[in-house]
Amino acid sequence: MRQAARAAKGMRGWLEGSMSTTEPFELRLGGITKVYPGVVALNDVSLHIRSGETVGLIGENGAGKSTLMKILGGVVRPTRGTITIDNEDHAGLTVHQSMQAGIAFVHQELNVFDNLDVCANILLGREISHGPFGLMDRREMMRTVQPILDRVGARFGPGDNVADLSIAEQQLLEIAKALSVSARLVIMDEPTSSLTIAETARLLDVIAELKANGIAILFISHRLAEIEQCADRVVVLRDGRNVGELTGDDIRHDAMIRLMIGRNLEIMHGQHATRPGSPKLVLNNVRTAANPSVEASLTVHAGEIVGLAGLVGAGRTELARTIFGIDAPLGGDIMVDGVPLVRHGPGAAIDAGIAMVPEDRKDTGLVLDFAVSRNIALPSLEEVSVRGLVSSGLERRRAEEQRSRLDIKVPDVESAAAELSGGNQQKVVLGKWLSKDPQIIIFDEPTRGIDVGAKAEIYRLMRELADRGVAILMISSDMEEVIGVSDRIAVMCRGSIRGILDRGDFSEHNVLTLAVG
Fold first, then answer.
1. Distance CA 425, CA 337 (A)
2. Residues 155, 115: contact at Cβ < 8 Å?
């Protein structure tokens, strides 16, 4: 019992201590260089951060951010350079040294155990136990974890199974895990990539709170509006080098983009070359398994992009899964070109000309170990087969067509999909469906976790598809994206479409008013 009391007291001590000023902290990186065979990932990079400061770290995919994070986490040792923590110099860190220094991570790629509950995930390796047999004190563990969940505004509890949480909720769990240790520097790598506006606002409040209590925050995000909101300074990497630093009023969207990509970036939003055509996809009173007692009705016309907005739990992804046939509808009609879908299932949806680019491209959009060519051919195996056998020549030819069409940056289409950047992986997912010439495409979080340059390319491709008459339904939690890309916005709340906004009515206020019901 004394052991359990000491463990619980220690954890509560962190929670109480985090509300007051922490021990002073200062980190300096000087001349950090990392060379892999044939590749210079980082070249003479410098960075400093101290207690009570939020530093934004930005750059396109491949700029060196991930390598720098691995060096700070002790996973990778720099080839040259010095890491100075509280005036103590290190040629490199081990994982243990990084943790001992109080460096904690919130990773973009979820690192949770979905066979355990929330409480077990947060206290993994630090379980509170008692008695001669070391039995876990579940009640005390849950009592310890609840305040951490409250701080991040989580709507789930310590005893909830992680497998039942949405991706956004799992992201909040990752943040809670980082806050559960005595961190002096919290490194957040795309922490809001799956969060809605309300959840992002809560996270930015948490960051402000941690900063006020003396914790240093290194914030990595492709969402530059968030960087503007929370960063005291912004450090920009390009091609593994420092290319600039912005402070105060100089932290502006255009200035950050100019440093990131070396030029001004113009993105045309919401400008379609042709007027929307006839109704392509019509939902009449569709009921889903997630909201069985609620009906959703929506029309998407040929040649338009309809943004589907809403808070987490509104039922957007569940509606998309039902349209694509992954989940069976419990009622209502799904119509394509005025014809009801009689059969349900992904095969029937594909035959009707529907394609879906899923929210989690690595889990449900790609087979990462497969080559790019194989991934692109997967929905079209019959079309790349001869006498029932897949033809590698036809498979490669189809992949080369999409590689050229979408400008997929890959050395060879026989390279594994896992080797590509996030933006190029998204293009591969899109390429496999474009080879089927779909008439309706559902994009679920189309730019999650990809950089500003790749986002611009995805937006351009979406607009080109719409201009060719494809009907596009885009689910996004990025308000800037929803307002910037959509021709109309449909807002969901608790399973139903609460309203449709035309471009003249687009605003965050109007979207949120409908989203909260």
1. 31
2. no
**What DSSP designation does 281 have?**
E
Residues 6+ apart with CB under 8 A from 258: 264
Alpha carbons 488 and 199: distance in angstroms, whole number? 24
Tokens of 239: 């091609």
Q: In 10 A of CB 115, how many CB atoms?
A: 10
What is the tens place of the pLDDT at every residue in 383-392? Answer: 888 888 989 8
Alpha carbon distance 174, 188 (integer Å): 10
Residue 276: name the closest of 434, 437, 472 by CA: 472
Question: Could you tell me how far CA 167 lies from the centroid of its own chain?
Answer: 9
Q: Which of 316, 332, 329, 326 is nearest to 495 (CA)?
A: 316
- Average predicted confidence (pLDDT) for the chain: 86
Q: Give the tens place of pLDDT for each residue, 166-218.
A: 777 887 888 888 888 878 999 998 888 767 677 788 788 888 988 988 899 99
Q: What are the tens digits of pLDDT across the range 226-272?
A: 999 999 999 999 888 999 999 999 999 888 888 887 755 555 454 55
Q: Are the CB atoms for 448 and 364 separated by under 8 Å?
A: no
CA distance 136 to 127: 7
Segments in 262-307 forming alpha helices (H)? none
Closest CA to 178 of 121, 106, 248, 269: 106
Residue-wise DSSP of 40-86 = EEEEEEEEEEETT-EEEEE--TTSSHHHHHHHHTTSS--SEEEEEET
Distance CA 512, CA 153 (A): 18
- Counting beta carbons within 10 angstroms of the beta carbon of residue 20, is it exposed (0 to 12), middle (13 to 18) or buried (19 or more)? exposed
Q: Which of 2-6, 178-182, 220-224 is modeled with the greatest confidence?
A: 220-224
Concatenating the DSSP letter of every residue in 417-457 gives GGGS-HHHHHHHHHHHHHTT--SEEEEESTTTT--HHHHHH
CB-based contacts of 491, cutoff 8 Å, min separation 6: 308, 309, 310, 497, 498, 499, 500, 501, 511, 514, 515
Query: How long a stretch of residues is the chain?
Result: 517
Question: What sign results for the dihedral spanned by CA atoms 361, 365, 369, 375?
Answer: negative
CA distances from 361 to 57, 109, 429, 462, 484 (A): 24, 12, 7, 17, 23
Q: Label the pairing between strands 80-85 and 354-357.
A: unpaired
Q: What is the DSSP letter of 264?
A: -
Rounded Cα distance between 93 and 442, Å, is: 44
